């Protein structure tokens, strides 16, 4: 059997309740915001590592998390996990980006609509929920996969060993590649005049993270 020498028991093993909307001072009108799709495009550069080096749900694409998704994750994981041996932690903040919406049947114009709800934008590779404790991957995989299937974007259940193996395979492929005509080379050298129809996102990420 595996040993878990570095695991410390926490006071509150379950996920905490997230606020539905951010709390503003009483004299401040809640600010509205643009779409800012750049918050969802591209790879996650900061929160892409596991803190406890065990198991987690990782976003496989960009998207937005609403408050209902937080409750779904909190309730499902809280019911299914063993609180005596496991604990769960959030790796995403509470909903903070305002999304506006106009009432149905309104005419065009009249200014920006009222705030309808708040979301949290997520990039590809972002760790969403982390599970750790005295437990094997097979114990967590079932209910974590159930949660990942209900998220509004593609997500996968991973362990630290799986992440290490993926990064190692990517390094080996990049190192042993013998074909010089990679997509990055094609785009940077404008082969066949591809700059005429490529999007700015392709110039930045070279065909990835669309």
TrEMBL record:
Can you tell which superkingdom this protein's organism belongs to? Eukaryota
Extract one GO BP annotation from the record: mitochondrial translation
Main localization of the protein described in the UniProt heading = mitochondrion
Q: Which GO terms describe its molecular function?
A: rRNA binding; structural constituent of ribosome
GO cellular component, as recorded: mitochondrial inner membrane; mitochondrial large ribosomal subunit
Q: What subcellular compartments does it reside in? A: Mitochondrion
The alphabetical list of record keywords is: Mitochondrion, Ribonucleoprotein, Ribosomal protein, Transit peptide
| Presence of the UniProt keyword Ribosomal protein in the record | yes
For this protein, the record's InterPro entries field holds:
Ribosomal_uL16 (IPR047873), Ribosomal_uL16_bact-type (IPR000114), Ribosomal_uL16_dom (IPR016180), Ribosomal_uL16_sf (IPR036920)
Cite the Pfam families for this sequence: Ribosomal_L16
The similarity annotation says: Belongs to the universal ribosomal protein uL16 family.
Stated name of the protein: Large ribosomal subunit protein uL16m
């Amino acid at each position: 059997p595996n040993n878990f020498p570095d695991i410390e028991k926490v006071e509150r093993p379950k996920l905490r309740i997230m606020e539905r909307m951010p709390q503003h001072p009483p004299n401040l009108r809640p600010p509205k915001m643009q779409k800012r799709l750049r918050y969802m495009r591209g790879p996650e550069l900061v929160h892409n590592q596991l803190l406890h080096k065990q198991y987690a749900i990782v976003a496989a694409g960009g998207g937005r998390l609403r408050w209902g998704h937080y409750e779904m994750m909190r309730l499902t994981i809280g019911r299914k996990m063993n609180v005596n041996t496991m604990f769960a932690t959030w790796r995403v903040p509470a909903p903070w980006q305002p999304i506006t919406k106009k009432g149905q049947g309104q005419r065009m114009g009249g200014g920006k609509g009222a705030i309808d709800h708040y979301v949290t934008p997520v990039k590809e590779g972002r760790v969403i929920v982390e599970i750790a404790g005295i437990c094997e991957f097979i114990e967590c995989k079932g209910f974590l996969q159930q949660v990942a299937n209900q998220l509004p974007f593609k997500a996968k259940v991973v362990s630290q060993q799986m992440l290490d193996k993926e990064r190692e395979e990517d390094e080996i492929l990049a190192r042993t590649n013998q074909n010089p005509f990679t997509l990055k080379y094609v785009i940077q050298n404008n082969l066949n005049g591809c700059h005429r129809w490529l999007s700015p996102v392709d110039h930045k990420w070279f065909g990835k993270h669309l």
